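User
Class, as today's exercise, I want you to study this protein, comparing sequence with structure tokens, and judge whether sequence predicts the tokens.
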Amino acid sequence: MPVQTLAHLVGRLPTPLRRSLRRAIGGQGHAQHWTHTLWAWHRARGEKRIDRIAPGLAALIRDTCGSVEGRSCLEFGSGHLLSEALVFWLAGATRVVAVDFHPLLHLHFARRAFTSADRDVLLAALAPAASGATVAERITRLDQLGNWTLEALSEHGIDYLAPADFGRETEFAGTFDLIHSASVLEHLPLADVRAIVANTQAALRPGGVALHAIHLEDHLDYRYNPHAFLAADTDWRESDADARGNRLRASDWLRIFRSMPAAQVEVLWDVVREDAPLPSALDAVFAGYAERDLRIGGIMLAVRSSAGAAPEQQPVE
């Protein structure tokens, strides 16, 4: 049975049964687990294949910084593959660093996500963000690489670092022109959010931009019951942030980023879930939140570091 079909069938199970199944199998969060190999394979041939992820990233580059040619990029929370990092490199970045708190990378499938991509589609997809000559030359270099190793990728300017703990000061202060994360920040432990955000923002060079896509729904059942963990009778606990999300709302994220020194915050888009009901009784922590804020299921932030004023790293307490 194809993984996509299996995932769809599991997704249609009643919430209590699906929760029990996930707990029985394990692998709900991002720590090492055998199911991650399955998902790496599935995503490498699906939504994370390079030619499929490139159009959205190219448009994002074009609209926020114009180009990454000759620049340095950080992929924060790269997960099982290197797809986003590879797109930035193919678009001309001099150096790309992919980091994750958990060493989840499956390099074989990261390579598969590239080798299975349609070259003509990839060239066309990256046209808004890079010259065709640059992209073609970078594609050729990866094609000639043979079997990938981390050492060989590093020689080309693509580095992978895991585990990487941004809850502490890092070696990357003032290093990157562009930072990108996708569905990462919502998994941060609540106690560590401010420190991690501060140290990530501190990794920007003055004038650089961080782009964060944040998924704000309950990951346990985001298709059919995306607001479940907002309920007064929720079984969500802070320890569930890794698997289900940390429950921070869009307004919380805006407040956190706006509190960072030298940060200029822009909302590029948000998605409001009008199709799913809010819980009849909300957890008391959400008293005073606007209904729209509670219904926002995803948000994309551009956080710029003001030129001439690099943000400070967060010291370890």
About this structure: The chain has one domain: 3-305. The beta strands are 72-76, 95-99, 158-161, 176-182, 204-215, 263-272, 296-305.
